[in-house]
Amino acid sequence: MKKILIIGIGPGDPRHVTLEAIEALNRVDVFFVLEKGAVKRDMVALRHEILQRFATGRPHRVVEAPSPPRERTPADYLACVDDLNRDKQAAFERMIVGELGEGQCGGILAWGDPALYDSTIRNVEAIAARNGLEIEVIPGISAIQVLAARHRITLNRIGQSVHITTGRRLAEGWPEAADSVVVMLDGEETYNRFADQDVEIYWGAYLGTQDEILIAGRLKEVVAEINRRRAAARAAKGWIMDTYLMRRV
Ligand SMILES: C[S@@+](CC[C@H](N)C(=O)[O-])C[C@H]1O[C@@H](n2cnc3c(N)ncnc32)[C@H](O)[C@@H]1O
Predict the structure, then answer these.
(1) What is the pTM of this model?
(2) Where is the Tetrapyrrole methylase domain (predicted)?
(3) Residue whose CA is closest, atom 21 of ligand 1?
(4) Class for domain 143-248, per CATH?
(5) What is the C-alpha to C-alpha distance for residues 90 and 94, in angstroms, rounded to an integer?
(6) Which residues does ligand 1 sit against, CB inside 6 Å?
(7) Would you state the CATH architecture of domain 3-138?
(8) Where in the chain is the domain with CATH 3.30.950.10?
């Protein structure tokens, strides 16, 4: 039977690849990578660096396919994500069926931890249901863990809960009864909506990379700086990935 290892690689720093992930990298015959085009060049480069640095124990091949394009501001977001996942699934399925031999082990590198806002597990499960694959998941360090460590904070206050959400959901309002709110996938600087409230923010961009930016404080006092640094970094690099925690004070 063919086997697929879904390996969490952390959010940008090769040192965040765990020993378990390194062992897994060295069991893989064929790595499958979806190329993401110019904007995500850096993310693909990190994947290649990780392979060069850690997957040294045995010969392997890397098979790449272009990543399906994503509409930036679709009218129907969920339908768009469904379409994107279907296209990604089809791309992975073509590569796995065509390039992985019987009894071989394939590897897919998942950004951060594959359990958090990542479609790889769902996509590979669907491919497995049609093609009979074995699947193993290796956890990775998430951007959220790096954010908390860099700011030297805990995600939850004592005995309280943490709510993890997206910028799109946060735009609907502060999650009911949530104490600490962690926000990912926010292309719209949604924290601005809460700048008139008594809220503290711990913000991080390009976490784990050389370009890492960290800003923390009362939101109303630091919001202008976050907006300014965010826009400048995005313009300079062509893309940005940021994550933040907010809580009422
Ligand atoms: C598709 S989700 C993937 C999350 C990933 N599975 C994880 O565990 O971190 C992408 C979002 O994760 C966050 N993210 C990932 N890498 C990051 C980084 N290096 N710095 C800041 N945020 C990051 C951003 O909120 C980004 O929009």
Answers:
(1) 0.93
(2) 3-222
(3) 242
(4) alpha beta
(5) 6
(6) 11-12, 111-113, 116-118, 142-143, 184-185, 204-208, 241-243
(7) 3-Layer(aba) Sandwich (3.40)
(8) 143-248
